[in-house]
Amino acid sequence: MSQSLEAYLALSAMLFGIGMFGFLARRNAIAMLMSIEIMLNAVNLTIIAFGAFTPGLAEQASTIALFVIAVAAGEATVGLAIVIAIYRNRRTPLVDEYASMRE
Amino acid sequence: MALPDTVPYIDWRWDDLVFLVLAGVMLGAALLVVLGRDIIRSGLWLVLSFAGLAGIYALLGTPLLAVTQVLVYIGAISVLILFAIMITQSKTGPGALVFNRQWWAGLIASAIIVVLLLMSVMLTDFPLAGTELIPAEARDIARLLFDEYLFAFEVVGVLLLAAVIGGLYLAVKDDDMPETNVQPGPGTGEARDT
Fewer Cβ atoms within 10 A, N terminus or C terminus of chain B? Predict the structure, then answer.
């Protein structure tokens, strides 16, 4: 089981689904950011699994995954800063209270 | 003391047992992150989910990625998220509702995505994929990173610098701008009485 590509891809699909549900359903902006991190982890697992089972691609896949991790770190920084900036204005982290942007 | 080749009593390979345990820990922790009512516990479960994924990276023969996962995700991003939770959680307290009103639509959409992904994984045969894991040498990764992908590496460095400056610009309080939409008085916890 641990020696087949399909097992890792199925695991990654389930992890992505969990993160997607969290992003769509949670009210708290930080919980949505955590769900985004879960989805990014699932994508990274897919890249690594493909690389680990394809001859000659293991190093390339690891390099791509390192880039994904770096960009995800930047995304988390800016996203959390935006949430804190909005929280300072509106005093709530719940996204369905941010109704004034459409008014 | 040498371990036997297979797990005693159930006759599995050790890799399979480790894979199942790590996958269960990772998925369970991710579910608790998404479904948990207390957001600070969600943040702590997120650490466990990242740790399970680091173990799976090690099982996949990429120990460098496992170490990077621990350093960046557990060490940096989780701490950042926990700090942001502690900043934004204070006054409103835990909301009565964790999910928004359209949570069922999100559940249907993500279930469809999972089913589609699982079907496409099961129905596709991957002709290039072997049945053996190929470990990635850290020396080869470093050679790729600093030779072939050197330009992308430098661009990522500039991107991280821009993210730090942008995050500071967004999060640092500027005193010139008056804070609108904040009701005065001690009852500022509820910004909107909906």
Answer: N
| Partners of B24 in the β-ladder | none
Is there a contact between A41 and B139 (Cβ–Cβ < 8 Å)? no
Please report whether residue B71 resides in a domain.
yes
The whole-angstrom distance between A46's CA and the closest CA on chain B is 11
A68 in contact with B, Cβ within 8 Å: no
Q: Does A36 touch chain B (CB under 8 A)?
A: no
From the list B160, B180, B182, which residue is nearest A73 (CB)? B160
Q: Which fold has domain A5-102?
A: Helix Hairpins (1.10.287)
pTM over 0.80: yes
Ranges of chain B whose pLDDT falls below 50: 182-194
| Chain A environment of B191 (Cβ under 8 Å) | 90-92, 97
pLDDT given at position B188? 41
Does a structural domain hold residue B70?
A: yes
Which single residue is written with the structure tokens 């008014």?
A103
Q: Which amino acid is at B19?
A: F
DSSP state letters, B137-187: PHHHHHHIIIIITHHHHHHHHHHHHHHHHHHHHHHSPPSSS--TT---STT
The ipTM is 0.91
Condensed to tens digits (0 to 9), the pLDDT of residues A13-62 reads 999 999 999 999 998 889 999 999 999 999 999 999 999 998 888 889 99
Q: Which domain holds residue B82?
A: 9-91
> pLDDT value at position B164?
93
Nearest CA in chain A to B177: A89
Chain B residues near residue A99 by CB distance under 8 angstroms: 192
> By C-alpha distance, which of B30, B29, B28, B5 is closest to B16?
B5
Residue B72 is nearest to which of A59, A69, A99, comparing CB atoms?
A: A69
